[in-house]
Design brief:
Order of helices and strands: HHEEHEEEEEH
Organism: Mycolicibacterium phlei DSM 43239 = CCUG 21000
Largest sheet: 4 strands, antiparallel
Oligomer: single chain
Protein name: SHSP domain-containing protein
CATH architecture of one domain: Sandwich
Strand content: 25-35%
Family: Belongs to the small heat shock protein (HSP20) family.
Shape: elongated
């Protein structure tokens, strides 16, 4: 009997696509379905600790100065990249080319004015300071008024 690979991952309520895209990795016969559902998705890792939110994105084969754009608006960080196909390759290619994009919601208390990004060995790292007082969500009661 074959072994089943088990992967313990935290729940990610912000995006359905990364988990759906990863589903196809376990079934090689379904790999062709991955293209329409998530081939142009930037894969990420993220963490929140020590007063900072860090996002690492896989972006191999791009020039970050020319091909990558990072924006933040209303608490949403967006990474856009483009990888151009090189025409000198004549054989089979499973590389993804074209435009890629990924948006993630920043945590509460994120300091959008002090975001830093760096690129090394195909990995884009975005670091966002998080103000601790604001990062802790507080619950507020909303009074209900009777209709007149």
């Amino acid at each position: 009997m074959g072994k089943l690979a088990v992967q313990n991952r935290p729940a990610r309520p912000l995006s359905l696509w990364p988990d759906l895209s990863e589903f196809f990795e376990g079934f090689p016969s379904l790999a062709a379905l991955r293209t329409p559902l998530g081939a142009n998705l930037i894969r990420i890792e993220d963490s929140l600790k020590d007063g900072k939110y860090e996002l690492r994105a896989e972006l191999p084969g791009v020039d970050p100065a020319k091909d990558v754009d990072i924006t933040v608006r209303d608490g949403i960080l967006t990474i856009k990249a483009e990888r151009s196909e090189r025409k000198e390759h004549n054989g089979r290619s499973e590389f993804s080319y074209g435009s890629f994009a990924r948006s993630v919601a920043l945590p509460a208390g994120a300091d959008e004015d002090n975001i830093k990004a760096s690129y090394d060995s195909g990995i884009l790292t975005v670091t966002v300071p998080v103000v601790e007082e604001q990062a802790q969500a507080s619950e507020k009661r909303v009074p209900i008024e009777a209709a007149k």
